[in-house]
Specification:
By secondary structure, this protein is an alpha/beta fold. The protein is built from eight helices and eight strands, in the order βαβαββαβααββααβα. β3 and β4 form a beta hairpin. The mean pLDDT is 96. The structure holds flavin mononucleotide (FMN).
């Protein structure tokens, strides 16, 4: 009985959300690599991970775990650099990104929420730094062509920021309690 939060995190945002959620659920937060042993007795397993080029890190491994343990309940916290749903970033965009890793045809009933993370270029691995430099160039082009959204994103990412807020987890916690899974 009980829950486990399994996380993937490079610069710490998803890990913070995992720890906050584990506090809410009264359980442990563990790296995804430890899911097999840590979740052996859990009946709710939550993946807390970050968007990397529009797919969620570790999703493949989590999907395989879900398929092998059909008797458990599951949920996902998806952390990304983009703001919480607003006029410039509608919820449909987060949904679209999430569905690349958990398509609606197979995972429609999987509870999940989006939480804004942060961005720290200096903490990235070497390959991600290269990827982000290319992404910055793309944003520069879009900003030059008049995209307010790209200009804002570029400025924030260059500066570095922490957009984590514990309350962003509230909708998921409420849903898990409503389902009596937590
Ligand atoms: C190479 C790379 C690709 C990324 N792609 C996306 C993305 O497609 N969508 C998004 O919202 N955030 C994206 N991000 C931002 C991260 O998801 C964000 O910084 C997150 O907070 C990182 O989580 P962590 O601190 O747990 O590592 C990307 C970051 C990197 C380094």
């Amino acid at each position: 009985m009980g829950a486990v939060v399994a996380f993937c995190s490079q610069t710490g945002s998803a890990k913070r959300y995992a720890n906050w959620l584990a506090e809410e659920l009264g359980c442990q937060a563990v790296p995804l690599e430890r899911i097999e042993t840590a979740a052996a007795d859990a009946d709710l397993v939550v993946l807390c991970s970050w968007f990397h080029a529009a797919s969620l890190k570790g999703a493949k491994r989590f999907r395989a775990y879900m398929a092998a343990h059909g008797e458990k309940h599951y949920a996902v916290v998806a952390v990304g650099a983009t703001p919480m749903p607003c006029e410039l970033w509608p919820a449909s965009e987060h949904e679209k990104a999430f569905r690349r890793s958990f398509p609606a045809e197979a995972y429609l009933d999987l509870p999940w929420c989006y939480c804004q993370g942060g961005f720290r270029f200096d903490r990235l691995g070497a390959i991600d730094k290269v990827m982000m430099r290319i992404y910055f160039k793309m944003l520069e082009g879009e900003a030059r062509r008049g995209s307010e959204r790209s200009a804002t994103a570029l400025a924030q990412m260059r500066e570095g920021y922490d957009g984590c807020e514990r309350s962003y987890l509230d909708p998921l916690v409420t849903e898990l309690r409503a389902r009596s899974w937590a």
